Records
---
Amino acid sequence: MTFKDAFAVIEVPNAAYLVGDLFEESFGAAFPTPRVNCGLPIHTPPEYWHQFVALYRWPDGRFETVGFCNWIRFGPVYLKGGLCVRPGFYRRLPIDHFQECSGSGGVAQLMMEAGARKLNDCEAWFGYCGDRKAFLVGSRVGYRRLESPYLIAKWFKNVPETRQKELETLVAKIGAF
């Protein structure tokens, strides 16, 4: 079995039962359960949420949740957050799977690519990123730094610069997400 055969990214309406422990370990915070009042100063009904989970099937047949990423629709854009990969996952992979996974950009990149195939009905994705390694992965899938601190964007359409700035200002008002 190849890494491609053993790895999958799925979307679920509420990934808490699959990812709660990974999210809490990664961020030291409670899992972002889809809900209207999620703590952001915007409307966030559950149907606006898109939670993607990366799963890996080990040679013994056991499945493990190895990654997570969350997108929330906000008007003409998505807010991407909560991106995390299980610590130590890469070290435990069989060498051929590690090489294949690494050659594909790694779990985080594969999750964002899966998200981009489905969540491309927007002008952009915005992320709030203060981690250098996370930004490097994001830049491989098209994210660019913006003037607002920690804010990054991946443009899905040919968006005029004035519109880009307008959307950046709108999203920056949200704060960390």
---
Amino acid sequence: MQVVIDTNVLISALMAKTKTFEIIVFGDLDMHVPEYSLEEIERHKEELRERMHIPDDEFDLALDLILSHVTVVNREKYRLFESHAKKICPDQNDFPFFALALAMGTPLWSNDKRLKDQKEIIVYNTKDMANLLLD
């Protein structure tokens, strides 16, 4: 199954050995993130690292592990879908994820409940993803 992953999912996987981490690392998914996601993580890296109580090199190692299971997609691949994504996305900060999901014709994995408040993109939360993978 192909799926676009929101940054909040990546951060959840980074923060602890959670169901999210297990799904990303051990699940049978073809996962994609827009390059914007890496920019978001970089902007919050210091805050995340401090919350995790780990040094830079350990943070980078953990991020690399998670990203080794995810394809980072260049903005050029979904740029044409950004205008429509901005119209339908309930949270304007998340329109790049919607644009990529539209471009790929895939669902979005996000724990942001607001993103389900539209009818064009299927949005799964982590519980939904776990249930899909167990079926």
